[in-house]
């Protein structure tokens, strides 16, 4: 029973880390939600384009 708790805890931590990494990558683009295209500007910021 103890082994199952450890496995469950490790899997939960891995899922949280994967979700955090995905949010870290996608987070800066969320202000462009609904735009037609998203590009990265020269300073590294994301620019939204609506056509």
Quick overview of this protein structure:
49% of the residues lie in helices and 16% in strands. It has 51 residues and is an alpha+beta fold. It has a two-stranded antiparallel sheet.
Describe this structure in words.
The structure is a single chain. The protein has one helix at about 1-25, and strands at about 35-40, 45-50. It is about 50% helix and about 15% strand. It is rod-shaped and about 55 Å long. A two-stranded antiparallel sheet has the order 1-2. It is of the alpha+beta class and about 50 residues long. The model has no long low-confidence stretch (mean pLDDT about 85).
* SS strand fraction: 15-25%
The total beta strand count reads: 2
The assembly state of the depicted protein chains is: single chain
Give me the Rg, rounded: 18 Å
Q: Regions with pLDDT < 50 over 5+ consecutive residues?
A: none
How many H/I helices? 1
- Series of secondary-structure elements, N-terminal to C-terminal: HEE
Q: The biggest beta sheet, please?
A: 2 strands, antiparallel
Helix content: 40-55%
Average of per-residue pLDDT values: 87
Tell me the distance between the termini: 57 Å
